[in-house]
Design brief:
This protein is α+β, with helices and mostly antiparallel strands and 139 residues long. It has one domain: Alpha-D-Glucose-1,6-Bisphosphate, Chain A, domain 4 (2-Layer Sandwich). Helices cover 23% and strands 47% of the residues. It has a seven-stranded antiparallel sheet. 23% of the residues are buried.
């Protein structure tokens, strides 16, 4: 099983960050390469659309409002992986009320690609996503 993790400190309090990213259906609010999110099954599943018109379907596995994190699995996607599980977490930064550390991590089995290729793919997705989040919060 392969894995990757990216962290980024962003210019907002953990509560402010969580209010933006903590909704399972909120990706279009901060992630530019997700244009649409349709909640299914009472919000436990999201169907995402990207600029290429591809569909990504994900299921919420775990959600913790108090600790500010959630985990999800990919059910359908154009990615060369299987068994994908990812977690998005918002942490406090000691001594900095108006900063938060956001960590996006995932584990998966390569399927039709090398481990290095899929690690690079998701590292890039997480890095670009957290950069976009930083930009949104800094505006």
């Amino acid at each position: 099983m392969a894995s990757t993790s990216v962290s980024r400190t962003v210019p907002a309090s953990p509560d402010t960050v969580w209010s933006l990213v903590g909704g399972f259906d909120s990706l279009p609010d901060w992630l530019p390469y997700i244009l649409a999110s349709t909640p299914l099954e009472g919000g436990r599943v999201r169907r995402l659309g990207n600029p290429e018109g591809e569909v990504i379907t994900e299921r919420l596995l775990d959600f913790n409002e108090t600790e500010r994190h959630y985990s999800y699995a990919i059910l359908q996607a154009p990615f060369p992986v299987s068994g994908y599980v990812s977690t998005l977490r918002v942490h406090t930064v000691p001594g900095q009320e108006n900063a938060a550390e956001v960590q996006w991590s995932g584990r998966f089995h390569p399927d039709g690609a090398t481990e290095d290729e899929v690690v690079d793919l998701f590292t890039g997705i997480y890095r670009d996503g957290l950069d976009a989040l930083h930009k949104t919060l800094a505006a």
